[in-house]
Design a protein that fits this description.
Layout: H1 30-43, H2 47-65, H3 71-86
Length: 87
């Protein structure tokens, strides 16, 4: 029966690649890992998924806080600086 199988062109790894994700190695503090594992177990989800969601939220928040410099915002900053210089 073993002669019926041909694994000469076989590849190791996941059967279906994850789209939009990249496998990396990351070093986390033990406390952080235990926190996410406990939180994920209570929520019934995976701890890696929870870490990914937390990182996405942090990136979104950082992006939202860094507003683009517009003419109106530039004028506002200049007025504030000029007013502070007069005081």
């Amino acid at each position: 029966m073993r002669k019926d199988y041909d694994f000469s062109k076989g590849k190791r790894g996941a059967v279906l690649p994850s789209s939009g994700k990249t496998r990396i190695t990351i070093m986390l503090d033990a406390e952080i890992l235990e926190f996410f594992r406990a939180k994920a177990e209570a929520a019934g989800t995976g701890y890696q998924t929870m870490i990914n969601s937390t990182l996405k939220a942090a990136v979104s928040q950082a992006s939202a806080e860094s507003e683009p410099l517009t003419v109106a915002r530039l004028r506002e900053v200049l007025r504030e600086e000029l007013h502070a210089a007069d005081a």
